[in-house]
Amino acid sequence: MTEERSDAWAAEAIRRVGMRGPQTVPTPLRRLPLPGIRGIEVYLKDESAHPTGSMKYRLVRAMFREAIAGGAIEAGTPVIAATSGAVAVAGAHFASLLGLDFTAVVPARTPGEVLARIEGEGGRWQVAERPPAAVQEEARALAERLGGHFLDHFTDAERAVAVCGEPTIADEIFVQLGRERHPVPEWIVTGAGTGATSATVGRHLRRHGHPTRLTVVDPENSAYFPAWASGCGDYTTGMPSRIPGIGRPRTEPGFLPTVIDLMIPVPDAASVAALRWLRTVAGIEAGPATGTNVWGVCHLVARMREAGVRGSVVTLIGDTAGPYLNTHLSPSWVRARGLDPAPYEADIERFFRTGEWPI
Ligand SMILES: *Cc1c(COP(=O)(O)O)cnc(C)c1O
């Protein structure tokens, strides 16, 4: 292939990946009704509206653009990811858009429905031979063997989003909130998986001098809350999170604790309770990490109410309920994990009705 042709491929590939580029349609900002509370508005930025149903679409798009721009992905380069989660679904989506082979190295016992979503976007999967903690190494080795590109979201997503030059989730939030009653939110609330989203929002707040503060909610077993609280940059729990997309057994390189004002550890049963409440009462079909976000929001809204502060709070719908109907949304699955969401459900229900929150 000549130099000229490879440049032409890259230019066309960047155009395709950013297809919604200049005319990018921001994901919707939805308002959560708070009948029991006056003067405070809660908004949910609906990241499940992306074509692959999750906020990882944004991260993976930025990673593809950076890999193409830097020559790591060229015509015919196979792309490999080390997850069965939303990154694999989005990776398969963008690879297929570019006519590239995509393989997800997935942990053993990944449910069939999850694998079907990767296939649905035109990707392949293979079950890792090594234990879950070594799946990344296996994917990296496979990429080397194939002369392919390893889509290493824990290492690369944060930087790719920071430099890719597209409007970030924070840019979109401030534009959309500009039309609302309290255009500069008191708080923005998110979870941390790669850490890219919280880093993007935190940097945006500082760069623009906004008084808005950033809260990161963190599930059980995650290294992020103890890392933030202790200032220990390489904190490890070695335990997997039960809330897909957020919480990590170790502090990943994209996690930027210095831009986070508050972290709230959230019990997994509380995340499940908020997830159920969202679905049955608010009619919002979200994934478990959105439950974690909403639990954190309740806490912050209660603090604002207590202090007589009016204003807005923004959080995210990170993905959709669909993939979790047989897991987090199934009472028997939840029970089998020893989780009891009932007391937390009662707290949430009372909070949205009356504004009362247990300390
Ligand atoms: C990945 C993910 C997050 C966290 O985003 P990062 O930018 O990776 O930290 C939150 N919620 C859901 C549903 C996710 O999939």
Automatic annotation (TrEMBL):
Its cofactor is pyridoxal 5'-phosphate. GO terms for biological process: alpha-amino acid metabolic process. The keyword Amino-acid biosynthesis does not apply. Gene3D superfamilies: 3.40.50.1100. Residues 25-316 form the Tryptophan synthase beta chain-like PALP domain. The keyword Transport does not apply. InterPro entries: Cys_Synth/Cystath_Beta-Synth, TrpB-like_PALP, TrpB-like_PALP_sf. Keywords: Pyridoxal phosphate. It holds the Pfam family PALP. It comes from the Bacteria. This is Cysteine synthase.
